[in-house]
């Protein structure tokens, strides 16, 4: 009779447990919906604050159409792995947008309407050759008014900037108006009339490229107010600038205006543009500086010295047409570029001509982040040594590497003070100055300014050759100067949230223990191999010496019994050394194989065994507690 009540009690207990489990799931969905926990070492699934701010500011929905050839990539594990990474980031964007970003995944199988849609959007298809059909791995995005942006193909080598590329796309669709760039230049960068040649002047290639992507407005060098419609202020070679203009620049920056500044200790292009073909024009070549602003921010710019770099020096034609390395003309490669900044990460070479450098003062108000730096084989040479430079080889007489690296370009941010704490400077009685607005003594938010210590970096001669083809200019770039400037303008065209997004770590993590074992095994192998190879060479040399020591008149060998024994011993030693070399080569990956064996044992046998043991102990304790 006692068994029936116990069975009934057990039944009711199971029913209550089931209801409790369902209730716990409902409570979990209600209380913890949307809560996500990123346990990856590099926070791969955690969006940056800038991205979240962009998504929170969306006023209208944006549609993301993720085109991924799932079926066609079944045998292409590399693409499948990266597609999973892209999908997960897209899902994070959608989850953080509070429903404003609508994600749809499309598999454009061959000869389908989905494939036609992918082609209509302009997505790029990649042929896998003999592995199968062409595949898509791209994104098309649209906003509510029909504007469209695409990522033609997600390149795995840009994984570090995946979040930035997507955030930039969102920012563009959220604000589709063309960015207005105000160009304040002390050198003739735009089209115009050249009084020296009495001909029309062609614009610089970098200016033409910027005009294709942005609305570039030329500003007067004596301006006292910057139009509020200006999104980016592009300042190039600000020489002999008046206080009223400097004050307008100061207030524009403190109001949150993104600014790109090019200064130079010696702008060769300035003199060349004024008097083309006249070498003596370098005597009148001027430098440029915004010292008053820089000093207020805690930034120092070298106006008396030029950075010379023995590692990055470019080769030019000397006075006798002999190739000469010019220490003042330097081509910075990937080693001198900031790999975590989106504007420099994909560049190969940026050429500078007679560039200055920046440094940050102790206790500076500005945040200072180098973008491009020299090598540690650089030094400083006084500007005057470049004015009448007939032979670039003579620069070595004044050159001494300092062992330091110099910052040629940098980002400046933070909350900055005004260079005019007392407000607008006094103007002359006959000057009408229009106030730019209420005086700002300190920026209310983070400013975004990029500083470059060279103006010649923009000129055609430093990065592009232009050919005339039936009246049309065809540029052929040999360096990435133009790409870099467009990257900077494009980056600054976004909000502070977008500019603040940096490169992220990738999902592909190396097996650090395995790599260390491989390096150690390789080092041991190399040292042992070198020793054994030296012994083998010595043995073979002594063997060859003995075999050729004595010869009969007919050419046959005449060896004594001792020499024959010595030869046999050397032959055995050579066999032993060769065997030992093969043994060292076989053992090169032995530690890695042993590690793999241990991991297999732990994963396949030890962990399940531990689970069984813990479960068995728990069951045993439960039975002991029962009466």
Write a brief structural summary.
This protein has helices spanning 3-31, 49-56, 77-96, 113-121, 162-174, 205-213, 243-254, 268-274, 291-297, 481-492, 496-499, 512-547, 561-586, 590-625; strands at 62-68, 101-106, 125-126, 135-142, 148-151, 180-185, 192-194, 199-201, 215-218, 232-236, 258-262, 299-301, 305-309, 313-317, 323-332, 350-353, 358-360, 367-373, 378-382, 407-414, 447-452, 464-469, 472-477.
Task: Give your account of this protein's structure.
- The chain has about 625 residues and is an alpha+beta fold.
- It has 14 helices and 23 strands.
For this entry, give a set of tags.
seven-stranded mixed beta sheet, 627 residues, 4 domains, five-stranded mixed beta sheet, alpha+beta, 14 helices, extended, Glutaredoxin
Task: Quote the average pLDDT.
Answer: 80
How many structural domains?
Answer: 4
Q: Got a strand count? A: 23
Can you tell me the overall shape?
extended
Radius of gyration: 35 Å
Number of helices: 14
Return residue spans where pLDDT drops below 50 for at least 5 consecutive residues: 428-432, 503-510
Largest sheet: 7 strands, mixed
Kindly report the spatial arrangement of strands forming the biggest sheet: 9-6-10-11-21-20-18
Structural class: alpha+beta
- Beta content: 15-25%
Helix content: 25-40%
* Cα-to-Cα separation, first versus last residue: 17 Å
